[in-house]
């Protein structure tokens, strides 16, 4: 048995599309809730960069169609399972199948299975912009009932029970959840990020000096393996992180090992608003977003259009 709830994701007052996508997807991909990221699956997007890929598709949609990319940014489904009826892995597969069939494989999506509550549940979010960036998903009349019907069919196919006469939900709305987010206790990842910021404010000269400052603050630093890992520093009134250390690179953004090294050397700067910028030495006159070119380290979105035209790359660059 699984229940579903379909919600639309829109920008709030004073919030950009980029920030809305990042905050929502970061919550869904929380490694403390998804068994260290093992219970995250995706279609036509990378779970590490899904928010940026969704945003890029919307910019491409506007460039191709001339239409504004406002309105619904993405669609969010919460799929909850009866306690003890499915494993977390099976729940993730069922959520993936639900998204695949409901979107007809025309929209990128991610499926995140949370195991931090008494019942396993999925957070499914798909981009409102289609993969070809020429159209958007339209929330049709009766879409909620169509989703619920498809969910029941899939549950029956997997041998799960089905609710015959579901009662209306009396739970909190997604908007209420967004209002209460800041009231929650900080996660292990939140505490580790705060410790990283505090250590960097002391201006360590090297990465090794930085790790020493982290240890002094109470953070457990685990080296020697494939990934650098942390255990959050003990804090009064908060649980200790004893099991499942957090990999540095799962902190994302300005808190990956590469980003921290750049912040130490001054290549990356974190402003008072929390937004970072990377200092560039090259002068580029004209830029275009191009998802086809990337370095081995990170996507590169800056190219010289005029040079590409001279190289005979095609009419797309001329447009």
Q: What topology emerges from the helices and strands here?
A:
Elements lengths: L1 E8 L7 H12 L11 E4 L6 H16 L8 E8 L6 H15 L6 E6 L6 E7 L15 H15 L16 H7 L7 H14 L5 H10 L3 E3 L6 E3 L14 E2 L9 H9 L2 E3 L5 E3 L26 H6 L4 H4 L1
Helix pairs in contact: 1-2, 3-4, 6-7
Biggest β-sheet strands, sense, barrel: 5 strands, antiparallel
Order of the strands making up the biggest sheet? 1-3-5-4-2
Structural class: alpha+beta
H/E element order: EHEHEHEEHHHHEEEHEEHH
Overall residue-averaged pLDDT value: 81
Can you put this structure into words, describing what you see?
This protein has 319 residues and is α+β, with helices and mostly antiparallel strands. The chain contains 10 helices and 10 strands. The strands form 3 sheets. It has a 5-stranded antiparallel beta sheet, sandwiched between helices. α1 packs antiparallel against α2 (50-65), α3 crosses α4 (143-157) and α6 packs across α7 (207-216).
Gist?
The protein is of the alpha+beta class and 319 residues long. The chain is built from 10 helices and 10 strands. It has 3 domains: 182 residues, BirA Bifunctional Protein, domain 2, CATH 3.30.930.30; 91 residues, no CATH class; 40 residues, no CATH class.
